[in-house]
Amino acid sequence: MARRQLHINVANVINPGSHPGAWRSPEGRPFGHIDVAHYHEVAKIAERGKLNAVFLADQVSIGPNIAEGPGFGVIDPVPTVATMAAVTEHIGFIATVSTTFSHPYNVARTFASLDHITRGRIGINFVTTMAEAGAQNFGLDKLPDHDERYRRAGEFVDVANALWDSWEDDAFVADRKTGLFADPARIHKINHVGEFFKIAGPLQAPRGPQGRPLQVQAGGSEQGRAFAARHADAIFVALQVLSEGRAFYADIKGRARQLGRDPESIVILPGVTLIIGGTEAEAIARKNELDEVTGQNNARALRQFANRFGINPDDLDLDSPVPLDRLEQQQINPQHQSRGFADAALSLARDRSLTLRQILEKGTGHRRIVGSPEQIADSLEEWFNEGAADGFNIFSDVYPAGLAAFVDHVVPVLQRRGLFRTEYEEKTLRGHYGLPRPESRFKKLLAQSG
């Protein structure tokens, strides 16, 4: 039996870097997020490291802190991944789509097209959108409520899967002798009528090399976990503490088992933000330099932490433990805040030995690791071996320099330990994750009917 190995994506490349000072760093590229050459370079570096995929987040409104940096979601990830795929051969690409403000037919057609164009290297990250401003860009005064957004998302994914499956794999005949190009009996209407959508089908585009694109989800709420366990091939999650990582991992795998899914068919990928130096001291110095270049040190992180719980930042003391009772009493509004990020911050706050300043140093969203290549590899290996992760979505402090440091110095350590591939062995993104190509559901139904 082959040894289990890590799955690693690089994320947040639509930003200058994960550190807020990235765009102001001498290594930073203030306009890299709108420069196609920048994306090409990032994709090539990630492929050099044999990573699974480049992951592009998105949102459908301008970021609230645009004065301080570009934020994510500046340009559309779909054409961006297409151009990155054109200059690479193996690495996969995951683009984000809002199920609240998109239509499943258009999305299914676009991603079926991308699956063909990339020869099977495409994945889709389904999000429900939590930015109120997004609603106002689509003719609504406010977001639909949290439960409604997840009901729509569930129906959206069911419809998209049905459309991707509406062509059987052998529907194309191309028989020059008989003149039969495609067999209509193998192309099926889906005739979907639901709460949110009424779609006849079939899809215009035939099934791609993967059958269906790799499907990713990142919700941390109860509805998000239920959705992920039912639909996702990979789950992107914010976790800070190893014990809570193990609990989340076991919860999702258990939910999948109860739904009749193979738990091994779902890959759990916590996010980690990395600041890498040749030694721990060099990594700390690099972080300090990035902190210094922002000119505000902990101010932005403090504001984000306080806003996450609806607390006035002036009520918090950086050099004391946080008022845990106040945090736990706050009702996180899923209309505006991420339940997963709030839970990750709470997990740190429960350690009463930590001051708020120390918590902010660790990162209150995705876990931050500052250290040498060996220290980075040690931390990733611990979570992997302790049943808290199947791999990671890594965030580099500055792109592309931070990613190059990971590829050139951390990846070789993981490879020497037998934890990561030394060459690509599969051609598709599903293959990189060790996941099989699903059959068309219509073929299964026809076989069952006899």
CATH architecture: Alpha-Beta Barrel
| Count of discrete structural domains | 1
User: How are strands sequenced across the largest beta sheet?
Assistant: 1-2-3-4-9-10-11-13
| Total strands | 13
Shape: globular
How is the CATH topology named? TIM Barrel
- N- to C-terminal distance: 36 Å
Strand proportion: 5-15%
The averaged pLDDT comes out at 89
Give Rg in angstroms.
Answer: 22 Å
* Count of individual helical segments: 16
**Structural category:** alpha/beta
CATH class: Alpha Beta
What name goes with the CATH superfamily?
A: Luciferase-like domain
- Helix percent reads 25-40%
- What string, H for helix and E for strand, traces the elements in order? EHEHEHEHHEEEEEHEHEHHHHHEHEHHH
Task: Report the uncertain regions.
Answer: none
Provide an overview of this structure:
This protein has about 450 residues and is an alpha/beta fold. It has a single domain (about 5-165, about 190-290, about 365-435), classed as TIM Barrel. It has 16 helices and 13 strands. The protein has helices at about 35-50, 75-85, 105-115, 130-135, 145-165, 220-230, 240-260, 280-295, 300-310, 325-330, 340-350, 355-360, 375-385, 400-415, 430, 440-450; strands at about 5-10, 55, 90-100, 120-125, 170-175, 180, 190-195, 200, 215, 235, 265-275, 365-370, 390-395. The protein has an eight-stranded parallel β-barrel, surrounded by eight helices. A two-stranded antiparallel sheet has the order 5-6. InterPro entries: Diverse_substr_monoxygenases, Luciferase-like_dom, Luciferase-like_sf, NTA_MOA.
